[in-house]
Design a protein that fits this description.
mainly alpha, 2 helices, elongated
Length: about 70
Amino acid sequence: MEHGGRIELEAALAEQIASELRAAARFHEQNGNDAVAEALRMDARRHAREAVMLRARAEAPVLVPA
């Protein structure tokens, strides 16, 4: 697998983790565990940011020294 493909796969995984964390946060919020829900949302945002950074890195041209 080429470098960009691996990074794209990592980005997709980070997005999936963020989605699962948001779902868990909703569950905890509905059950009155606001502190847990907020911690999960913060972690979800971190994973979502990581996915954005990975996608940008995958799209960046690879510079090879001459």
